[in-house]
Amino acid sequence: MVLGKLFGALKRTRDKLAAGLGRLFSFGRALDEAFLDELEQLLYEGDLGPVGTEVVERLKSAFRQRQIRDAAAVPAFLRQQLIERLRGSEAPLQHAAAPPTVVLVVGVNGAGKTTSIAKLARHLQQQGRSVLLGAGDTFRAAAVEQLTLWAERMRIPIVKQATGADPAAVAFDAVAAAIARKVDYLILDTAGRLHTQKNLMTELEKIVRVVKKQLPEAPHETLLVLDATTGQNAIRQASEFARSAPVTGLILAKMDGTAKGGAVFGIRSVLPVPVKFVGTGEGLDDLEPFRVEAFVDAILDFGARDQGQPTPA
Ligand SMILES: Nc1nc2c(ncn2[C@@H]2O[C@H](COP(=O)(O)OP(=O)(O)O)[C@@H](O)[C@H]2O)c(=O)[nH]1
Ligand SMILES: [Mg+2]
């Protein structure tokens, strides 16, 4: 497997786990309850949360049933378990039966929405798709400018109104323009005032209603952008958004520079939708489709990894 940007981006998450895992696996220690308790603690500290505990519970029962007898078999077992936990979390971006495909992007302020939209537009553009952007974050003056700058850089058209305009009106205009211009994708930015504020959710609902007036099947994707550096906070946001918006996928921004990449497991346990993309930096090309195996391999480093044996069936 090619070690891409994701592997580089997850260095801090991997390093945090690796120090402990390396210690645990490097002395030829016997596999016993103490070993497994230590492993559980390590996974917990690596922000794997309850999933770490569940996986170690599985491991403990495999150990008690003598399916696993020595420490060398643990890495492969763990890897397989973590991959299993993320089953179903890899999926391509949906597209409409007939263009345009409407992608609504939601999330709290600062999560990385606007930057991720620019990256996603670039990604689609590179696949030969035409893209239109809708500047639906009309609350912050800088937000429309920020998206406009990205659009200009990529020579992508943008539909916008003045700061303070009704975001639903922007969405309506953007959908009309997407249909008229026959673009493949319309990506709609939104404001991200705190998700706990009921009016934000009311506003998102209004945007969706307005979009449906012209395209009943749209939005084809509602992507929630979460800031991976916030760990537990991202998990909380995921569960709150899950309750109020029909989120169909996730973008995990800022996976670079965080040691909390393991939060993916916690996020997926409260909001089991696919992780469509991972943000690995601030540049236009710093977006990667999520790959489960590559992700697990990027966070696990046992030092003595090559001792791993095939997982028992
Ligand atoms: N390192 C890093 N920074 C990011 C990433 N995505 C976004 N950012 C930064 O996070 C900050 C907030 O992003 P922005 O897109 O404005 O968030 P928004 O308020 O949700 O629209 C900006 O400084 C971005 O450059 C990422 O994947 N990696
Ligand atoms: Mg923004």
Describe this entry's structure for a reader.
This protein has helices at 5-9, 11-26, 33-64, 74-85, 113-126, 141-154, 167-181, 198-214, 232-244, 263-270, 292-299; strands at 101-106, 131-134, 158-159, 185-188, 221-227, 249-253, 275-279, 287-289. It is built from eleven helices and eight strands. By secondary structure, it is α/β, with parallel strands linked by helices. Helix 5 runs parallel beside helix 6 and helix 9 (232-244) packs parallel to helix 10 (263-270). The chain has an eight-stranded mixed sheet with strand order 3-2-4-1-5-6-7-8, sandwiched between helices. Strand 7 (275-279) and strand 8 (287-289) form a beta hairpin. The structure holds guanosine-5'-diphosphate and magnesium ion. Guanosine-5'-diphosphate is lined by residues 107, 109-115, 192, 225, 253-254, 256-257, 279-282, 286.
Gyration radius (Cα, Å) is 21 Å
The whole-number mean of residue pLDDT values reads: 89
Choose one word for the global shape: elongated
Measured by DSSP, the beta-strand proportion falls in 5-15%
What ranges have pLDDT less than 50 throughout 5 or more consecutive residues?
304-313
Largest sheet: 8 strands, mixed
Helix/strand-derived category reads alpha/beta
How far apart, in Å, are the first and last alpha carbons?
23 Å
Bound molecules: guanosine-5'-diphosphate, magnesium ion
Helix content: 40-55%
